[in-house]
Design a protein that fits this description.
The protein has 324 residues and is of the alpha+beta class. It has helices at 6-18, 71-74, 104-109, 135-141, 149-159, 179-185, 190-197, 199-203, 209-222, 249-253, 257-263, 267-276, 309-319; strands at 26-38, 43-46, 56-61, 64-70, 86-91, 96-99, 122-125, 161-166, 171-178, 224-231, 237-245, 281-292. The longest helix has 14 residues, at 209-222.
Amino acid sequence: PAPPAPAAAARSLRVALSDMTSASSYRIEMSSAQVISSTALGLDIASTIDPDNPVSVSEVTPEGIHVRIDFAAALGLLAAGAEALVVEMWATDDLVVMDTTSYSSLVRADPSVDLGPFRPGVFSFDPARWDALDEYDVVAALGGDTIDLATLGRELPAVIREVEQSGDSPVVYRGVASWADLNRAQGTDVGDLARGMSAGIGLTSAIDAGVLADIYVDFFEEVQADVVVTVGADGLVDSIRYFVDMSGLYASLFSSSEMQQAMGASDVEMASVRDAFVGTEWTIENLVRFFPDPDLMLEPPPVATEDRTEEFLAFMLDSGAFDD
């Protein structure tokens, strides 16, 4: 039979996604792959999706969130022989506990490295010091990535365009969405995401952190992601897979008048910087799998040995990860 017309496919996808909004306890497994190839950055990394070894696992209940992330795997560094860099976070409205013990391998490799508030240890901080942020915001700002299913089920149908449907069991939907809209649909504050992703450049540049984040947001609004939603025989969403080409980010960044002013560079110098990034390739592919579990209970976090609230707040404000 002929596949459903785009309008019918979009309606069908909306129904499938709406069923996600009722889940209050669930596990999310995210597998990630990146290709980063840039002479200017001195990087040549390529990784592939491995569903059996997710780079992050999030457990979400009404009581809070537990996230386990291997940043080395997320960045594709394990293929280059790097040790695992596993960070765990337990977050509620009242308390965040982090375990960065595995970062001791970074200290062993370079005893002079300054990890600031991320230095190895088990510690806590009070998210109430960051007004108007909930536990999802805190996890995202600290490099974690979890998804609010209620938000996803409600928002994703509105942002996916050009929806095509195929198959019966599973049913597969394909479409496109801007990178900004896709992240908003997952419950991510795009401004926070931009501030987090631009923090490294912000620390080494004279450009205002908020202005820099705005440049990133503008790029996220323009760049398009390919989205694939798979629905199982039970009618529930099994997975969402998306692919985005971020290669144009640096051309956009170094074409901005704000960055030129911050660098104090001439038009010729800025053109030279842009030329250095010609040929840069950066793609991101994520596979997100969903496992609703009404009986899910979070294991309690380990006992924190140190409170780093003020240190974390100062670090995040200095890096531009949050607005003051």
